[in-house]
Amino acid sequence: MNMASACWMTRLLGEPVSSLSIDESNDIIAGGWNGMLSYWDCDGENSWSTNLPDRIGCIVSNEKFVFATAGLHIVALSRHSGELIWQFALEGSADEVIIHEDRVYATSSVYDIEHNDFIDSAVWCFTFDGNNLWTKHMDERPWTIFSDSNAVIIGLGRPKMGIAIINQEGELNYQQLTSNSPVTFGKLIGSKPIFGHANGDVSSTVDNIINIEGESIDEVLSDNHENLIIIAEHSINSLSNDNSSLWSMKNIQTSSQAIGFEINNIQSFWVAQSDGLNGLLKVIYCDSGQQVATMTCSKISNIAASNNRVVVGNEAGEILVWDAEMLNRRLDKDIDVAQDDHKKAMRDRIKALKKR
Fold first, then answer.
1. E strands, 180-317, where?
2. Where are the domains of the chain?
3. What is the DSSP string of 311-352?
4. To which CATH superfamily is domain 9-354 assigned?
5. Conformational region of residue 226, where left means phi above 0, alpha means psi within -120 to 50, and beta covers everything else
6. Which residues make Cβ contacts (< 8 Å) with residue 95, sequence separation at least 6?
7. pLDDT in tens for each of the 356 residues of the chain?
8. Residues 67, 76: contact at Cβ < 8 Å?
């Protein structure tokens, strides 16, 4: 299948894409390396664009606000107009931002070049109107931040490692995990927090799930059957919901990935690679690892997905969007054409045999 011709829309950000967000209403927000932040509605119309102080690193939104990290700053904008409502300079780089129970949480870190290490990190809590309620400093860098129904959870690096559970008052309850290795990734999958570690462990709060020996864990995704897709430093490994192996891909380094919509009634996995000069997009069936389609383009920096769309951003500043209905229709058409070509080839062969 020609992925480029099956693309629902292409838009230009005007600079290399550094961050992407798509919500369940299919509104897209894209951030760039030079601070451009742009919003497209579900019909592909550009609602607004705003220049922010620095590279956009992380984007979250709700019905009224868009929150983003931009260099040292956390910024808040009107979702409707893109107007900058407030910004706050954190201490060190602004790393990640999340929304939890009508509050905004951000992480920051200070890197010391001479010591070749992070010397200070912090978690910040804000009201939607920009009031800094509290700040908690720590020696460990919070490599990941997310929330469950009760609290905010951060995954920690050395020396403490493990996780810290944070309540609304900013109290940190430290908890060790079964893996004694820095937490490199964390996410709520189903109703269970799942963590990736620097030594290749994938764990929950109660046990170790698997170890990808010799590889750090970059991300863990889950399909609609609660099967896991584990993206490690040099491989991709898929586990069923009973932790047995489904499929794997070795000697592969990814730049971004996401679980996408169903193709031929099977959920898809979208993954980006780079050969140093160009980007390669692969679309794979989640259940088997079978490749559905590929496409080359500029280096891909981000992939995000909703229930029925997948959006890809690259270093050429392109925002590429695929729609489930359109892509499946195009795939069916390609199958019909291939079948017609096969039937025609058979007829021509029979005619040639009759002429002998």
1. 183-189, 192-197, 201-203, 208-211, 217-222, 228-232, 235-239, 245-250, 256-263, 266-274, 279-285, 291-297, 300-305, 309-314
2. 9-354
3. EEEETT-EEEEEEHHHHHHHHHHHHHHHHHHHHHHHHHHHHH
4. YVTN repeat-like/Quinoprotein amine dehydrogenase (2.130.10.10)
5. left
6. 57, 58, 69, 106, 107, 108, 109, 142
7. 789 889 999 999 999 999 999 999 999 999 999 999 999 999 999 999 999 989 999 999 999 999 999 999 999 999 999 999 999 999 889 999 999 999 999 999 986 655 555 668 999 999 999 999 999 999 888 999 999 888 999 999 988 999 999 998 999 999 999 999 999 999 999 889 999 999 999 999 999 999 999 999 999 999 999 999 999 999 999 999 888 999 999 999 999 999 999 999 999 999 999 887 899 999 999 999 999 999 999 999 999 999 999 999 999 999 999 999 999 999 887 644 444 444 445 555 655 555 55
8. yes
E strand or H helix at 136: strand 132-138
Both structure tokens of 165: 């559970």
Half-sphere exposure of 264 (CA within 13 A, CB side): 15
DSSP 157: -
Q: Who's near 66: CB < 8 A, 6+ residues apart? A: 29, 37, 39, 59, 60, 76, 77, 78, 79, 82
Q: What is the CA radius of gyration of the chain?
A: 22
Number of residues in the chain: 356
Q: Report CA torsion sign: 201, 205, 207, 210.
A: negative
The tokens for 305 are 């997905």
Please, are residues 123 and 136 in contact by the beta-carbon 8 Å criterion? yes
